[in-house]
Design a protein that fits this description.
Blueprint lengths: L22 E6 L5 H11 L7 E7 L4 E7 L2 H4 L2 H6 L4 E7 L15 E5 L2 E8 L5 H10 L9 H16 L2 H11 L5 E5 L4 E5 L8 E5 L4 E5 L2 H5 L4 E5 L4 E5 L7 E5 L8 E2 L1 H6 L5 E2 L2 E2 H15 L6 E4 L4 H12 L7 E3 L12 H5 L6 E3 L1 H4 L3 E6 L6 H12 L4 E6 L21 H4 L2 H8 L3 E4 L2 H6 L8 E2 L1 H4 L1 E2 L5 H7 L7 E2 L7
Parallel strand pairs: 14-23, 17-20, 20-21, 21-22, 24-25
Antiparallel strand pairs: 1-4, 1-10, 2-3, 2-4, 5-6, 6-7, 7-8, 8-12, 9-10, 9-11, 12-13, 15-16, 18-19
Helix pairs in contact: 4-5, 5-6, 9-10
Length: 498
């Protein structure tokens, strides 16, 4: 087998998939238990982040919050939810990217004060120019409890709101300064606000509860479904939505900053979003099914069984099976109760091949030629372990098919894909990667093929991790520490973050 270049060393503790974005949820529902409804909304969005969770609630006079490390079900109990009384709430499930600490202070929502009034903010995404903004705020006497970019945004909103005496103006002026990806929800004691970056990199949608029962905002439509809200529309790029009443009169929207070229993260379709969600009018499940069908057209192979790597690879594997006529079968079983564990296996347990998440079905795969469909290969470590596990279970051949192009460039907008030297496709050819992970063959879906499967309403995508073309320009410090190849990244927006 071809050995990987000396410069490339895959992390043994990081997965092959891009690590999750975060989830935000907000609700304005007089007469309802807002905290409990937010709990269920976060439960539906748990796949987007498993490191910490939090809920903040407003009752018209004050804002209180509970947050902690762990899953939603670990952080909240009946008694905790009962203590969060109010009719306005926001929630957050976190996977750390910027400000990577998994401390209590880094958990969201972030609480801040505007004179004597408390606000709470939750953020999905990553800002790329907060270092200089943080320095400016510190010079003005602002103290920080965490290293997160979300707290910088909360402090800016507080400062500008004090000056203007209007929350929407404080948010608007903050949106003029911050750069990067953000889908944010914020509550004051009397209102819920939702706002989104001018490219719309991270998703955020609006739903209405039945019989003028109020409004809901969510990272995905599956968060609306679980509380019985009807999808109304997406929060538009660069828009602020304020909700302080029920019915149509209770929602006011304004274009805070000019919208730029749309750039929804295409990995929402590939991996992040739940398959029952709808983005830009297109079913995520239907998109993934189409990816599998297209991948077969681009990279056919003779085999006995098609299997998907749970969960995100399954719809694409079914599509590949339908297009090829090769039967689909479950070749591995996923332990759905693992999540992200804080108790890490010892090195000895790793060497013994501890299988926390996946276990093979030898009766299904022994002696068979397998097509294994997965969403992505980022570092190559877990793909290598998967192929070895399938061979140990008796697979005659293992052909890997990936329903996205090679991940060659790091992400700076809310997904943790590491620096370029940790991305296997930035350091090795497709043939060398196949040798490295032990597959008989390896093929990726083309860039054009992927985009053809994601064409919904008002489409436009960020594909920087595949193409090196970034919607928002990065600081020189980010560029200096994140790229290792001879090729230079390219930027849609030419103005550098301040």
């Amino acid at each position: 087998m071809t050995k990987p270049p000396v410069a490339y060393v895959a992390s043994s503790t990081r997965p092959d998939h891009p690590e999750e974005a975060c989830a935000v949820f907000g609700i304005y529902a007089p007469g309802e238990d807002a905290a409990r409804m937010t709990y269920f909304g976060l439960h539906a969005l748990q796949h987007r982040g498993q490191e910490s969770a939090g809920i903040a609630v407003a009752d018209g006079n004050s804002v209180v919050a509970t947050k902690d490390r762990g899953l939603v079900t670990q952080v909240f109990s009946e008694s905790t939810l009962a203590s969060l009384e109010g009719y306005i709430a926001i929630g957050h499930a976190r996977y750390s990217t910027s400000g990577g600490s998994n401390s209590w202070d880094a958990a969201q929502p972030h609480l801040s004060t505007i004179d004597n009034e408390i606000i709470a903010l939750a953020h999905n995404g990553t800002l790329v120019n907060t270092d200089s903004l943080r320095v400016q705020l510190i010079k003005r006497g602002v103290s920080f409890r965490s290293s997160t970019d979300s707290e910088v945004a909360a402090q800016l909103i507080g400062d500008f709101t004090r000056e203007s005496h209007h929350m929407r103006e404080g948010i608007r002026r903050t949106m003029e300064l911050i750069e990067g990806a953000y889908a944010m929800v914020l509550i004051s004691p009397q209102a819920l606000y939702a706002f989104r970056d001018p490219h719309g990199i991270r998703p955020l949608c609006i739903g209405e509860l039945p019989d003028e029962g109020g409004w809901v905002v969510s990272s995905e439509t599956c968060g609306l479904d679980i509380v019985g809200a009807r999808f109304v529309r997406d929060v538009q790029p660069g828009e602020i939505v304020r909700i302080n009443g029920v019915g149509a009169q209770g929602l006011v929207a304004e274009q805070a900053v000019p919208a730029r070229t749309r750039a929804l993260c295409v990995f929402e379709y590939v991996y992040f979003a739940r398959p029952d969600s709808v983005l830009n009018g297109l079913s995520v499940y239907a998109s993934r099914d189409a990816m599998g069908r297209t991948l077969y057209q681009e990279a056919p192979v003779e085999a006995d069984i098609v299997m998907g790597v749970p969960d995100s690879g399954v719809p694409s594997a079914i599509g590949f099976s339908h297009a090829s006529g090769i039967p689909y079968a479950e070749g591995v079983v996923k332990n759905r109760y693992v999540g992200r564990t804080f108790i890490q296996p010892t090195q000895t347990l790793r060497q013994r091949g501890i299988r926390l998440k996946l276990n093979p079905l030898p009766a299904t795969i022994a002696g068979k030629r397998l097509v294994v469909v997965d969403d992505s290969i980022v570092r190559g470590n877990t793909s290598q372990q998967l192929v070895r596990m399938l061979r140990d279970a008796g697979a005659a051949e293992v052909h890997m098919r990936i329903v996205s192009p090679p991940v060659v460039w790091p992400c700076f907008y809310g997904i943790d894909t590491d620096t370029q030297d940790q991305l296997i496709a930035a350091n090795m050819s497709v043939e060398a990667i196949a040798d490295y992970i032990g597959a008989d063959s390896l093929a990726y879906l083309s860039h054009e093929g992927l985009l053809s499967c994601c064409a919904g309403e008002d489409t436009g995508f960020c594909t920087a991790c595949f193409s090196g073309e970034y919607p928002v320009r990065l600081s020189e410090a980010m560029r200096a520490t994140s790229f290792c190849g001879s090729l230079e990244p390219r930027f849609w927006d030419q103005s550098a973050p301040e």
